[in-house]
Amino acid sequence: MTTSTVKPLGSLRGQLMRWLLIPLVLLVALDAVSVHRNALNAADVAYDRSLLASTRALAERVSIVNGKVVADVPYVALDSFETDTLGRIYYKVTGINGDFVSGYDDLPALPSKVRRSEAYPALVYFYNATYHEQPVRIATLYQPVYDDTMRGIALIQVAETLDARSGLSRQILFDTMWRQAALVLASVLLVWFAVRFVLRPLMQLWRNVEARAPTDLSDFDPNLVHKEVRPLVIAMNGYMARLQALITGQRRFIADASHQLRTPLTVLKMQAELALREFEHAPNNSAALRDIVENIVKTTDATVHLANRLLTLARAEHGATEAAMTACSLTDCARQVGLELAQAAVRKGLDLSLEAARDVKVHGNPLQLHELLTNLLDNAIRYTPPNGKIMLRVLTEDGGDGAALLQVEDSGPGIAAGERERVFAPFYRAASAQQANPSGAGLGLAIVRDIATAHGASVELSDAAHGSGLQVTLRFPAHDSAASA
């Protein structure tokens, strides 16, 4: 019994939930990042407009007095700016010639790479900077100033801390995330119910399989499941049909075997009773008693032979494919079987010979191959008349490293061409075989084909090459290809 090393698959419902919900959560996370950026942009747009308004209000208080740029910025105005923006305000006014006029002289200057804002008609620039270890947003406005004596451009800078902007972006983000979290929770519930609903036919099929009786091999209705699962149900039905055919064949085999065994055993019992009766009524009639006892022995031999064939056939049908396969010599196997059955051939006056030019290797099970050769040679000995010939050949196709060939040729009655396929069925016997050996079992060739099929070999029946008789040819795959297969 082999143990599978493949890791078992988990729950189908769990996999569907993971494949549906994990991408959804990832998309929500990516959307949260996008929402956060959009919230920051929205806060910048809103607060930049307010910052520009403060800058313009400050610019209106810049004028030229006595030839100098002055800024009249009372503290009340600054307090109103801070109240409107909900953040701290810093400003700086630079004169026409770049001289400091008012405000905070260390306010960060306008970087050269900052572009003018296209959202407003004024000459305003917005940029982020750090002032007194705090991030600030600065609006820089170029304001024309003039009087009767001079004119020029003053530079107005107003900086605002980012507290209000961050609060607004966080509020937008949290509001959006709450809604998306509720959406994800609703999606989880909907997906769970949807997966449960979709898998309901499959679970019903599982319950139907569990509820089936061991002897119920009827088909399942593939229309009760989804289209994607129908091939599986159809394959299950096909497998159960093959299983039903196998069980039917086994039952038929048992019935045939019981019938075949019952007849010789009944005869054996009758002959034994007759022997006892003859012994009681005619104790001096030793010749008649001897004949009866000899018939008992023959019938017993036939019964034992039949039982052995039945066991061999059962092993060939159910055990050959599971037997250990290895590289073995077909030539040595043929030589060994020939020596084992040589005495039976000699008793019948048969000429048994082996023709093997080289050591032919095949990939197979030695015990099964020995059984195959024993059945072939035993059949040849049984059906070949006295003084006949039996040739056992082991060779390769075309004399090279191709397929291995095993041939058993006899000078017996042979098998008619119309019956050569039917003789492989258990208990079927050709007419010529019944005439030559009435006590045969009809299992030899069935065993041969089962073992040959397990080894990937083909079996062919043909007329003997010289005169009457039968030639059985088995073609095995080449050793290298069979081993790789």
| Widest sheet: strand ordering | 4-3-7-6-5
Number of strands: 14
Approximate helicity band: 40-55%
The structural domain count equals: 3
CATH topology-level fold name of the largest domain? Heat Shock Protein 90
Tell me, what's the shape? rod-shaped
- Can you tell me the CATH class of the largest domain? Alpha Beta
User: What structural category arises from helix and sheet content?
Assistant: alpha+beta
Head-to-tail CA distance between termini: 21 Å
> Helix and strand succession?
HEEHEEEEEHHHHEHHEEHEEHHEEH
Tally of separate helices: 12
Mean pLDDT: 77
Approximately what portion of the residues adopt beta-strand conformation? Answer: 15-25%
Low-confidence stretches: 318-323, 481-485
CATH superfamily of the largest domain: Histidine kinase-like ATPase, C-terminal domain
Evaluate the radius of gyration. Answer: 51 Å
Report on the biggest sheet.
5 strands, antiparallel
Specify the CATH architecture of the largest domain.
Answer: 2-Layer Sandwich
Transmembrane segments: 177-199
InterPro entries: 2CSK_N, HATPase_C_sf, HATPase_dom, His_kinase_dom, HisK_dim/P_dom, HisK_dim/P_sf, Sig_transdc_His_kin-like_C, TCS_sensor_his_kinase
Protein name: histidine kinase
EC number: 2.7.13.3
Description:
It is an enzyme of class 2 (transferase). Its main location: membrane. Its EC number is 2.7.13.3. GO terms for molecular function: protein histidine kinase activity. β11 and β12 (404-410) form a beta hairpin. The protein folds into 3 domains: 14-171, Beta-Lactamase (2-Layer Sandwich); 213-318; 324-484, Heat Shock Protein 90 (2-Layer Sandwich). Helix content is 52%, strand content 19%. The chain has helices at residues 12-59, 75-85, 163-198, 200-211, 230-281, 286-318, 330-340, 342-347, 366-383, 431-436, 444-454, 479-484; strands at 62-65, 68-71, 89-94, 100-103, 124-131, 134-146, 151-161, 326-329, 351-356, 361-364, 389-396, 404-410, 458-463, 470-476. 25% of the residues are buried. The longest helix has 52 residues, at 230-281. By secondary structure, the protein is α+β, with helices and mostly antiparallel strands. The radius of gyration is 51 Å and the shape is rod-shaped.
